[in-house]
Backbone:
């Protein structure tokens, strides 16, 4: 098989036997732990407090000796030792790039430094994903992303260049201009968040552009969970195949990708990461098939070692044997399915934003939506605000309202959602991570 027709970017590691893979991971873990212990003031202190030393990493089970790292601890370190805290192993004089988290949780963004070597590694991680999705050097990639301090698709941009594809940065432009450039430059690959892929499709329709007739054949999504209904809608609007990926500012790149030969499942890049799934309440590691909080350990970022970082991502890990594509890496079923802290309790019922979106996107009459939770007296109320697509007249609304209420109630133990029609273009649109749920209840 020639390199261009191989489904693997790195055949040796993507098909490595599990025993050899475990040995490789353990060797890399020892090296990173020793590096952090020697160079990072934060890790020296937290390791000592936990009674842990890098020399104790002799077997796979010894991973549990490493203390968890939380976002709050990282933020507190930066507040106490501004601006970068005590996690980095070197100062900004050794870095070439600074990025921050998106701040979607409403908390202070984290600041992360990367060296030249870190960014080279980040590009390599994206090549796994791009190649697995079928991107090749002859492709033209359009990155629909506002280039700024948020890390976003910076790594993908570098990965496209490393792979050899013509790369078009689509930053600092309006949505109509981006859509026109995608067409004018004959882009074959488009990268964006799921929300923005939908937004561009809406704009294309208003411009009279048929994206399904364009050369675009691959859409790389990241930044948000992608329910099946949202994926189906994007594929229908673009006439292209959607591929899911996920990354984090904290690790400077992606850690999983959906290849063309394994739809619906995202392989973990296990030669560069150890990914564990824990019970968020107890910290105990969970078996395959159980939903829990994702904990990540990264081998590639040298400036800021990341060991057992609690991400708050909600995932379900499955063994590599569920895949039939020859990769020996485990998978996250459905990618990132939400956030542990995204779940809202409304009158005794769990409400997840991803589940709501999965229902709403099944209705082609819906253009955009927002969910609002309020407290009326002593009773919690939840309201779905909906913008409809052009052509939906007032006489059509009652039936749509009842259908939405019925589907949402059926999926939420009978919980009644109020459904309100919003005026056209009054609900927010998003380029990066969407915030479609607002909890207005007073904080106790």
Residues:
């Amino acid at each position: 098989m020639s390199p261009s027709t191989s489904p693997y970017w790195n055949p040796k590691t993507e098909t490595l036997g599990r025993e050899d893979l475990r040995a490789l991971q353990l060797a890399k873990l020892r090296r990173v732990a020793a590096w952090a212990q020697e160079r990072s003031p934060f890790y020296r202190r937290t390791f000592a407090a936990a009674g842990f030393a890098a020399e104790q990493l002799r077997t796979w089970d010894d991973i549990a000796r490493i203390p968890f790292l939380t976002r709050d601890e990282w933020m507190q370190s930066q507040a106490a030792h501004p601006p970068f805290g005590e996690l980095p192993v070197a100062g900004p004089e050794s870095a070439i790039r600074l990025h921050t988290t998106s701040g979607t949780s409403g908390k202070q963004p984290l600041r992360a430094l990367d060296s030249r070597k870190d960014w080279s590694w980040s590009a390599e991680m994206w090549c796994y994903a791009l190649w697995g999705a079928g991107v090749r050097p002859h492709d033209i990639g359009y990155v629909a992303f506002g280039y700024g301090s948020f890390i976003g698709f910076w790594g993908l941009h570098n990965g496209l260049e490393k792979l050899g594809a013509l790369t078009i940065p689509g930053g600092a432009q309006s949505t109509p201009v981006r859509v026109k450039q995608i067409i004018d430059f004959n882009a074959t690959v488009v990268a964006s968040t799921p929300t923005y892929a939908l937004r561009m499709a809406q704009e294309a329709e208003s411009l009279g552009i048929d994206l399904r007739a364009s050369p675009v054949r691959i859409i790389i999504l990241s930044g948000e969970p992608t329910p099946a209904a949202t994926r189906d809608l994007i594929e229908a609007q673009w006439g292209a195949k959607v591929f899911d990926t996920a990354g984090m500012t904290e690790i400077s790149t992606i850690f999983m990708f959906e290849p063309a030969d394994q739809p619906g499942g995202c392989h973990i890049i296990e030669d560069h990461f150890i990914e564990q799934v824990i019970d968020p309440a107890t910290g105990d590691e969970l078996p395959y098939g159980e939903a829990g909080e994702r904990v990540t350990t990264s081998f590639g970022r040298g400036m800021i070692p990341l060991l057992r970082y609690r991400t708050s991502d909600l995932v379900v890990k499955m063994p590599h044997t569920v895949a039939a594509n020859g990769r020996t890496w485990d998978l996250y079923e459905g990618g990132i399915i939400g956030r542990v802290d995204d779940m809202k309790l409304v009158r005794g019922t769990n409400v997840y934003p991803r589940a709501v979106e999965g229902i709403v996107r099944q209705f082609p009459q819906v253009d955009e939506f927002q969910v609002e939770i309020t407290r009326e007296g002593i009773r919690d109320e939840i309201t779905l605000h909906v913008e409809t697509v052009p052509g939906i007249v007032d006489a059509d609304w009652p039936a749509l309202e009842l259908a939405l209420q019925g589907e949402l109630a059926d999926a939420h133990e009978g919980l009644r959602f109020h459904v309100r029609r919003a005026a056209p273009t009054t609900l927010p649109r998003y380029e990066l991570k969407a915030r479609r749920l607002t909890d207005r209840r007073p904080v106790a």
